[in-house]
């Protein structure tokens, strides 16, 4: 990736200036809102903000121009995400459509699918969610049992998905379903685009320890989608689904790390305020966290731009462990006050509780380590019953 030369510095200044000029008025109150565990915060206004971004051409920045994107270079995309996070702008509501499904359709979709779905993603007119995990197939994605059968000009779906982020506000879901009866593991799976606002689909939010409900159960009971709403060929769903997961861990991770740095700075300030900063062990662990954040950035920059292979599992493993550790450091910085609340969790308690899930969602640590062992290090495959 190109170094931070004069053209890139000029681009950064332009992004920062635009954000400063536009995070004003009612949008000013969005600063710092949203994100994992906090998706409920000013959601409708954040949708309006995202559409404001779209009108100015600041959504889908890495998509090719011919597909409605801005066509930015990899270095410019990194700069945009970093400046966006540094400005305090709110967490994006269209991440799943823009960063996951959009690149998947650009790579594997038909021209008709691209024409139908990409413009509405770029304009934030339709929101998406990801239908992968199931009650008996969480991190072991190849064990999915949700089925889809071809009936005339439609696919008919039956089954259940779980831990589906933002399904309660989504219009569509890309679903990994078993379309070949009797098939097992990676075989016989297909990647379908399914409308959620129809009879036969039930979305049920799951209340978490933090009191919020951004994850959902999704039930398909003879739900339907068109025969042309399959990405790739029938039975090719595993390959498409893995490509989507590769797109998920792209340049936006650099912006995520800016948010992490802001959280770390706030934890340090809290330790200084409460007096726990006087504990040399806590200070040493906070210093290690600062170093760990630099490691995250170095790894992300080293792997960006290459093929989305199993090496991306290393990045997920690194940031999930780091962020969960930050939640624990926040409790130590708060001291004894962290153990009690008056009915409402404070920001540090929410951080601690939600980061318990960081090492599970998006691929559990155990699964990521298995991927690294088998596909990166070439170790013998894990025995499965």
TrEMBL record:
Q: Where are the transmembrane segments?
A: none
Q: Where is the Acyl-CoA dehydrogenase/oxidase C-terminal domain?
A: 235-377
The highest taxon in the source lineage is Bacteria
Which SUPFAM superfamilies does the record associate with it?
Acyl-CoA dehydrogenase C-terminal domain-like (SSF47203), Acyl-CoA dehydrogenase NM domain-like (SSF56645)
Q: Report the InterPro entries cross-referenced here.
A: Acyl-CoA_Oxase/DH_mid-dom, Acyl-CoA_Oxase/DH_mid-dom_sf, AcylCo_DH-like_C, AcylCo_DH/oxidase_C, AcylCoA_DH/ox_N, AcylCoA_DH/ox_N_sf, AcylCoA_DH/oxidase_NM_dom_sf, Mycobact_Acyl-CoA_DH
Which cofactor is recorded for it? FAD
Acyl-CoA dehydrogenase/oxidase N-terminal domain spans which residues?
9-124
Keywords, sorted A to Z: FAD, Flavoprotein, Oxidoreductase
Q: Identify the residues that the record assigns to the Acyl-CoA oxidase/dehydrogenase middle domain, covering every copy.
A: 129-222
Q: Which family does it belong to?
A: Belongs to the acyl-CoA dehydrogenase family.
Name the record gives this protein: Acyl-CoA dehydrogenase family protein
* Source organism: Amycolatopsis ultiminotia
């Amino acid at each position: 990736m190109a170094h931070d030369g004069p053209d890139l510095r000029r681009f950064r200044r332009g992004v920062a200036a635009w954000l400063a000029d536009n995070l004003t008025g009612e949008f000013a109150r969005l600063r710092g809102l949203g994100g994992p565990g906090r998706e409920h915060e000013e959601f409708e206004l954040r949708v309006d903000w995202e559409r404001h971004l779209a009108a100015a051409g600041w959504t889908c920045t890495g998509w090719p121009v011919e597909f409605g994107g801005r066509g930015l270079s990899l270095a410019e995309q990194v700069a945009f995400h970093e400046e966006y996070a540094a400005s305090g702008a709110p967490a994006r509501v269209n991440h799943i459509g823009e960063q996951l499904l959009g690149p998947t359709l650009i790579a594997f979709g038909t021209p008709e699918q691209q024409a139908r779905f990409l413009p509405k993603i770029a304009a934030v007119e339709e929101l998406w969610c990801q239908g992968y995990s199931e009650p008996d197939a969480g991190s072991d994605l190849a064990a999915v049992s949700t089925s889809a059968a071809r009936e005339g000009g439609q696919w008919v779906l039956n089954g259940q998905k779980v831990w589906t982020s933002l399904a309660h506000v989504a219009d569509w879901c890309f679903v990994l379903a078993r379309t070949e009866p009797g098939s097992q593991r990676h075989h016989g799976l297909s990647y379908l685009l399914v409308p959620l606002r129809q009879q036969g689909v039930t979305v049920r939010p799951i209340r978490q320890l933090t009191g919020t409900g951004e994850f959902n159960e999704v039930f398909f009971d003879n739900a339907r989608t068109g025969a042309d709403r399959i990405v790739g060929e029938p039975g090719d769903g595993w390959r498409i689904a893995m490509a989507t997961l590769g797109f998920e861990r792209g340049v936006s991770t650099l912006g995520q790390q800016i948010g992490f740095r802001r959280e770390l700075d706030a934890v340090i300030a809290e330790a200084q305020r409460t007096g726990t900063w006087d504990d040399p062990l806590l200070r040493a662990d906070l210093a290690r966290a600062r170093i760990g954040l630099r490691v995250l950035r170095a790894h992300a920059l080293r792997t960006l731009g290459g093929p989305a292979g199993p090496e991306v599992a290393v990045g997920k493993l690194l940031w999930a462990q780091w962020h969960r550790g930050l939640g624990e450091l926040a409790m130590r910085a708060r001291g004894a006050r962290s153990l009690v609340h008056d009915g409402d969790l404070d920001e540090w308690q929410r951080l601690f509780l939600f980061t318990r899930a960081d090492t599970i969602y998006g691929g559990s640590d155990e699964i990521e380590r298995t991927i690294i062992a088998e596909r990166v290090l070439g170790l013998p495959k894990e025995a499965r019953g």
